What does this fold into?
Amino acid sequence: MEIWINPACSKCRSALTILDAEGADYTVRRYLEDVPSEAEITEVLGRLGLEPWDIVRTQEAAAKELGLKEWPRDEASRGRWTAALAAHPKLIQRPIITADDGTAVVARTEEAVRGTLAK
It folds into this structure.
């Protein structure tokens, strides 16, 4: 399994603590340094079953500068949203865990993190 984290994020640190306590085998990806490509973001969105606008941190300065709240949320706009996430990785909600079984979860709660361990 892989977990996308920002070390400054308390929810990311909490997720890592849970994974460590459970002895989980995982790889850390500091996604602000190792920025996912548009293709990787699209693949993870498919695994999450979400649209790109569903994982945007709308309160980030970049979101406000880009005016994301005003962007259309439709199929024709998916690529624009994904490109924005790749260009501004701080906009990506975190942490995201991609499990070995092909699923993924935005692991902002203890339950979500533990759900990845039950698989």
User: Anything to note?
Assistant: DSSP finds five helices and four strands in the chain. The beta strands are 2-5, 27-30, 96-98, 104-106.
